[in-house]
Amino acid sequence: MRAQLEGARREGLERQLEEQLLDTLIGRAIFPRYAFPMDVVSFWVSKPKWKGDPAYKRSFDYEPQRDLQIALSEYAPGSSLTIDKWRFKSECLYSPYAPDVRLTLERAQAYVACTSCGYVSLTEESESLAACPCCSTVEMFKHRFITPEGFAPDMNARRDIDHGQGPSYAGRTTRAQLEVQDPPTMWDAQYFEHRLAVAARPQNLVVVNKGVGDRGFLVCPDCGRTEPVFGPGFPYSVLMQGGTPRRHHHPLEVGVFCDARAVGPYYLGHRFPTDVLLLRLRFAAPVVCPTADTPGRSGRPGRTALTSLVEAIALAGSRILQIDEGELAGNWSPVLGGGENEVYMFLYDLLPGGAGYTRLVRDHIEKVLEATEVLLAGCDCESSCYRCLRHYGNNVDHPSLDRRLALALLRYLKNGQQPALSQNERQEALTWLLQLARLKELHATQDAPRNGVIVPLVITRDDGSEVWVDVHHPLVDARAAPSLVQATAASHFVEFCPLDAFTLRHDLPRAYGALQL
Q: What is the pTM of this model?
């Protein structure tokens, strides 16, 4: 049987037969190396073969390891990294312990995610969904994902010296995602008049790298060469040319070509078990926390508030438990049938399999939330900074962090306090819209008296008709809580347009378009 094997399969067998059991267990990440996490993969840099080298024996210059959640970004095919002052580009899926990439492809799992609200499903049945079951969006990510056993550069490529370049990435790994599911039959505890419910239990989470432009990766099933799908951000394809398969170098053999056709696209992903603390947040009108984009409302303020609050709770929880700040992380997920009035947040242990930290957070949840409020309220930055929410681990999310939104959301949960804007916040939110209106030579007046009320902004058309603009908090539904300005406009048959402060600051074109001038 051994003599019948050829190529990479024979090499893998020979390597495993030569290794000591302990070395194999460490190399396969069954035991961690240097106390690294269990789910680790290597970037295998092969040594060139020379005449006289034993047949079917491959040795390596470098075998750096990374946690799989990190490797899905740093080692993903198309990404570049530096090892020992040499610059390498990841070009294929490879591990001497699993040399046949076809087996990896056969284990591909379903992945369906909404582009708008955060819905995720890993069931085969979900691949037939025509629209998101949470928000009815028809645009969904539907690609199967594979879990790589390892990565490698192309042996045919020349090694270049690193000249101080930073790493480059072929897509980024998502935050850990929780499958949308039925709610627990019983919550461990409920707080604040049932606005918050918590339950701690082991669950599976998933992270994926969707590739450049979310287009996925193509994989050659014979040689393992892998690359992002051709398009903006990745204009040079080795596997395809003009939509047809292209002959390419075998990345693990010098001077050898492969004629196999690439398959895919696939996402690169990792599904892993850990301890999860599920928190259900419930809102009553007029308070809302939308996560989906609809024609009448942007879900961006809700997504920003939830991302910011879960980051704050993870930081506060780490400090209360006196553990490293990198030991807890979190995310949020929509609730089937919850709409804008119910959403899940979750915390999870970053240690493989969980270390019980989430249960400790559950047991001290009120104390953790008090510390969270102190963290958010104790900073004077505009949105976020390294004194409150930012740290190296969430640098990709820095533009999506807003301590003020998180604080408003938290105070509502704890005290039922409806989010509101101060007079100064209303005026500041309208600054850019006022300037844009004047650039377009529209007559715009701020804080204009009309019929006994002060209208934050009045825009007058050429025909003399007016549009009254009022500003409300982004976590409040203006339709469910009509302001005095809105009531006055209705009674005098004046056109009225409510705008939220977040959209005015972060999406001025959308705010201007809502005026319908």
A: 0.86
